[in-house]
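User: Teach me something about this protein's shape.
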Amino acid sequence: MKDRDRYWDCLDQAMEASHGGRTEEALAWLDEALKAHPHGAEAHNGRGEILWDAGRVDEALYELELATMADPKFMTAHLNRIELLIEERGEHEHALQRCDELLAGRPELPRPDRGTEAEIHYLKAKALFYLDDLEGSLFLVRRAAKVAPDVPVYRAFEGQILFETARFEEGRRSLEQAVLMDSESAHAVYHLALVLERLGEEDEADRAFRRAHALDPDHYALPARVEDAVFQRASEDALANLPRSIREAVENVPILVRDLPDEDLLREENVSPTILGIFIGVPRTEAALTEQARDVNRVILFKKNLEKVCRTRAELVEQIQTTLQHEIGHYLGLDDDDLERIGLA
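Assistant: First, the predicted structure itself:
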């Protein structure tokens, strides 16, 4: 009994230290908790959460696995482990398998209540999103929102998916609802800004971009806006900086600048509205094998999207160079694996 009391006291101390930003102290208290109760699932889960926040992903995953082994019915550890697999390890198929195991009601695993079922559907939706199954992802997050309509993150994610599938008006409604439910959600505010920008509501979009940045400046930078002439000159300089042999190879391929990809392009090319640039046409390596006219070849850079991924003008100039090289690489017949090998993915 004394050891159990000591265990819970240490957990309380660890939580207080963690909330105060004292990571090492929190970990030390959790070590003390595990001395009192070596198979304490809560302590292992707590270590996993703290290590994850500290960016020590492999250690965090190990602790979460220990937590689920110590108490296979400890749902929080299962959910944390699944989310880490999705967000940090990119093990999306593995995460889907773990979700399905929890939903299957296996006797050795915890039985989810309705709220937890909604969370599992949401995690499955995230995994499918990263696997580019946007319709499956949308179905599952809507299922989660139907079960738990008061959870703003579900509405925000629904809006994000609708944005990615170019259903901008629908996305706006979902994101406005999410922001009403949680006005401090930088994720929801930022994606609302993206939708408003697509709908041509520039002033409202700019206010939302600034609000998202104020809420979370590390993740949501203010767009590095520049005048059209400055952007055009940077694009021309990027082309001029290519080796002469490459410049000669692309001399008949126009380099165009557009604010954003239009909806026809999004539909025809099946690309994200946030795409930075695109090559449209026939790769040079396939030109002899097709009758398609070569004058359709073109590279398009999307100014507003490039501005949004950069914090400074210098970053923007560098990103224009990288994006142009990437798209010219596609024209020259390089695939994404080739481009990744030479640092242009």
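Now, about its shape. The chain has three domains: 39-144, 150-222, 228-341. The chain has a mean pLDDT of 93. If you'd like, I can walk through any region in more detail.
User: That's plenty for now, thanks!
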